[in-house]
Amino acid sequence: MKFHKGSYGKETVQSNALVTNLLKYPEIAKTLIRQYPQYSLNYFVDGTSRFAKEEIIGDNAFKWAVLGRTNRPSTLTGGGAGTGAGNASFTFEVEENYINPNDIVRFQDGTQAIVIGEPTASAGGFMFSAKLQTSDATATFAAANRTAGKTVNTAGSAFTEGSERGYENSVYPDWYVNYLSISRKAKSITGSALTDITWIENNGERLWFFTEQKIMEEDFLYEREINDWYAQSTMDVNGNAKVFDSNGKPIVSGDGILRQIDAANVDTYNGTLTEERITDFLAQLSLNTGETNSHWIVYTGTAGKVAFHKAMKDLVYPSGNLIYDARVGAETEIGVNFTTYNALGSRLTLAHCPIFDDPNLHTDIDPASGYLKESFRMVFLNFGQTDGVANIERKVKGAGGINRSMIIKYLPGMVDPFNQAQMMAVSSRDSFSMEILSESGMVVRNPLSCGQLIFA
């Protein structure tokens, strides 16, 4: 795709205007997004057509389900009695009723036992009877295994021959709800600026738009990128708006990426990274996802890129020196760009997020390095799939051929962008206006598969 300047004239007609074709062919928008890789989240989501298919609930809510681990631990209360010596039964009390008869349960010191019969309701929750899973008649159940707050988990099951039935556990998914947000931007183009246009050439096709429109689109995309990262919901748990404009109309806003994953895997670092630190964090993410061969895109600012570079350099060149073969009298290009790291069967790829470097958004500076503290933020986003669907997508309002991902319209005044002979106008200003609008929201299907390393 190529951009070049031009002048308004007989070739700049409505049929080959960018706005006209965006309305007819919304997929053009994703091609435009690819021209702005500095808006990295939009670039990866919109540019690769990651659009969610969940239906809208009411006017602006959408939800998705995430089924976590189906095998869940039970929390001990400290209640129960008996040692289990001589293959006798003993009891233990837990808060939850996740355990079934004939389940093999494993306590934190490695002791395993077989549950005998249904539980009975008790003051602290549920009381279970069990027998140690052993042939050693001298083995005993340690009282410390009942310590309140410790957990016990299911490690299988054991039944008699001719057993009458098995047992089931009903595990329900967690539902996540988010809301569509409406973003807008406007620009007026005077009659004097009418002749400044830009041509786009792609695959033999030529489309044009007003040069001032390009500036507006860049501002709009940047603001939407900020919103996609930092937006905070204005809706309460019942789906009611808590923020209203001066006319009493509700302002609906959903959570951005950071708010959706802020309760997941968050750890800190002091600005200095090591390969071991990165590997440990990947291990924690892998444990929480239960997946192998995962690929994380790690969004970070300039400071995070520097920290990652130093960590990789120290791994590859522990002496601290890059080794190269310099030929006398020849121009020599040295250095390495570290962008991808593989460990534990997983992979991460570094992506620069200029939003984290913006001094207009962030003002807290690390005095030791001189970088913004936000610039050190490293956000690990899992761009894989959850139940066969992309983990991170954009949900856009639209149906019946209407797509509100990016809508651009012209409002003529004394200047009409397509027909100067037109006698009708919507305003008396010596200009025409452009409006750009998007109604969308972000989806992180499995927040636990994502994480952050932030400056502390």
Could you describe the 3D structure shown?
The structure is a single chain. This protein is an alpha+beta fold. It contains seven helices and 24 strands. Strands 3, 4, 5, 6, 7, 8 and 9 form a seven-stranded antiparallel beta sheet that branches. The protein is elongated, with a radius of gyration of 30 Å.
Summarize the topology:
Layout: E1 2-7, H1 18-24, H2 28-33, H3 40-45, E2 61-66, E3 74-75, E4 90-94, E5 103-106, E6 112-115, E7 120-122, E8 125-132, E9 151-157, E10 174-179, E11 181-190, E12 196-202, E13 205-210, H4 211-230, H5 257-261, E14 265-269, H6 275-289, E15 295-300, H7 302-316, E16 340-343, E17 346-352, E18 378-382, E19 385-386, E20 389-390, E21 392-396, E22 407-412, E23 431-444, E24 451-455
Parallel strand pairs: 14-24, 15-17
Antiparallel strand pairs: 1-12, 2-10, 3-9, 4-8, 5-6, 5-9, 6-8, 7-8, 11-23, 12-13, 15-18, 16-17, 18-24, 19-20, 21-23, 22-23
Average pLDDT figure: 83
What structural class do you assign from the helix and strand content?
Answer: alpha+beta
Q: Helix content range of the residues, please?
A: 10-25%
Q: Tell me what portion of residues adopts beta-strand conformation.
A: 25-35%
What's the end-to-end separation, in Å?
Answer: 42 Å
Tell me the number of helical segments per DSSP (H or I, 4 or more residues long): 7
Largest sheet: 7 strands, antiparallel
What's the gyration radius in Å?
30 Å
Number of strands: 24
Shape: elongated
pLDDT < 50 stretches: none
